[in-house]
Amino acid sequence: xxxxxxxxxxxxxxxxxxxxxxxxxxxxxxxxxxxxxxxxxxxxxxxxxxxxxxxxxxxxxxxxxxxxxxxxxxxxxxxxxxxxxxxxxxxxxxxxxxxxxxxxxxxxxxxxxxxxxxxxxxxxxxxxxxxxxxxxxxxxxxxxxxxxxxxxxxxxxxxxxxxxxxxxxxxxxxxxxxxxxxxxxxxxxxxxxxxxxxxxxxxxxxxxxxxxxxxxxxxxxxxxxxxxxxxxxxxxxxxxxxxxxxxxxxxxxxxxxxxxxxxxxxxxxxxxxxxxxxxxxxxxxxxxxxxxxxxxxxxxxxxxxxxxxxxxxxxxxxxxxxxxxxxxxxxxxxxxxxxxxxxxxx
Length: 346
Fold this sequence. Notes:
25% of the residues lie in helices and 26% in strands. It is of the alpha/beta class.
């Protein structure tokens, strides 16, 4: 089969590889029916993920059909349509039992697919701990509707959940890229009094306004003053930092009111400074780290009920044979691209 492969920093190639096989009784083999490109894939390409292993098949956003299961797998059967969780987790270790599945202590725990073991930008993928990492897709939910459940939608749902949003809150979201938009859709489910999105790209600003016309939108240069004008207690009650750009970490805490919660979802290419003398009196609570993607079944229920819809994010589609072109488009942010769907059929 053809698989999109990490060769070295700055270089991915579509290479011939053997179809994956079961390696553990808890594995499943999934025939990938639709995949996508994530910003984290670009981080690997740019050399910003040291734990990424050269030679692996990249890709961790995918849906598919179960082709084969190990003898210990009981939650899914051959023929089931499934989402694939970005994280591999055993469900039994100290962290998994407390819902912190990103910190699973299993050797394949955490972000493994498409980083440390072969991922899903290929026709087939082996999924370890399939009972935990696969969720059946309801019959009325399409592959496109379910495509982001295991990664960026799980991230947005997790960010909204840990931010402890109430109906009285003003929520500021920094960044309207794909993960930022998924975060926005999940924050809306909490019905806060006011949502403000900060984004610099005009195309993404238009996208947000078309998708969520009730949301207030500002730009980085105006953000702090805008938030002060549109909040009740000297800043946002909750800030979710999804941008990961130069200056956005500082912007996040500067725009927060005293005693606010600042949730950091973003990945950074460089260390960030926590200037405690400047923020001392604000008494902020920071929540950071990788997504704990253990809400996929609930997210699928919300999609089935019509309460979540990420299909507008899929702005472009490519076959696997043209995945180089898809990466160039996604990386350049041209042509109004938000997310790219990749048909991986052989």
